[in-house]
Predict the structure.
Amino acid sequence: MSRFVRDLTHDMPPCVIEKASSRALNTVMRLCILAALCASLSTATTEMFTFSVPKDPVSVRLGHVATMPCSLTPSMNAEGLEVRWYRPKHFDNPVLLYRERQIQEALQQAQYVGRASLGLREVTSDGLKGGDVTLKLVNVTLRDQGEYVCYVSSDQGYESASVFLNVTVVGTPPLLSAVRRDADSVNVSCVSHGWKPRPSLQWSDGRQTLKPERLDYSSGAQGLVSAHSWILSSPSSAPWVSCSLVLSEGEEWEGRVDLRNLAAVPETSSGLQTAVIILALLLVLFVVFIGVLYKKRGRESTPVPKGDIVDIETMRQAGVNVTLDPNTAPPYLTVSPNDRRH
């Protein structure tokens, strides 16, 4: 710049040179001040929309209230800003839109109307006045799981950050059943359905953790998980066993079964069972056959005409006297003194 001034004033008179140098220096100073102001404004605009959001996913139980924290750092009044929460690829159909100092329900996704609102990151938060733009979602459903984008904008710029929501489901209480195999061995099974995510299953006899003979998980509708496990236990070593399923602290079920008063179940070989079934079927077929045969014979019998039936009095009138020889008569037949039997 000084060389430029020297070249510009080389052929000028001294008084003119002094005035030209002063003007050039003033111009340079103005340019420097303008550049500094631009840099300052750029830095202020960038720092205004720095967000503070959780790094880990937010977990909430099905049907409960979800709080997805999002706040401006350093804290500032956000009442005059636009706050938009939306799912990826649904910017124009947001979960919640705060603009012109009120919630714009007309643009919300239908499934979030009446459920989404601006909440508080913590109890002591000042809300929008303190730059807290946290999303509150009530009556959480399985469809609510996933990514949510926190977006804040003003005339000077905008910023966005993502928060992830996990929805957990506590399944059914465990159903336990026990079958005695022999004098000192009991087969105990445990079944529970409808968990999300997959729970941990643990057996115990009150003194120690028991290793299951088998543990299986399966997924059903909407990704809900079912658990099935069984163990062999001894009533002489422990009076009861328990089956526990756990997601986290406060999200668990436990079931117990008493092993002391179980009736013994005799084991029957498969061959004997088959023989008993076949014998029962044969007996049923035999009874059916006899019944059919009896009915058939009844239909085939010839009825006696009414006129051929002889009255008992008529038969008595046709009676005759019979003379018997006592020497040849049967010993059980009594013969009258006149050697006749009427």
Notes: The chain has four domains: 2-48, 50-168, 175-258, 275-342. The mean pLDDT is 81. The two ends are 172 Å apart (CA to CA).
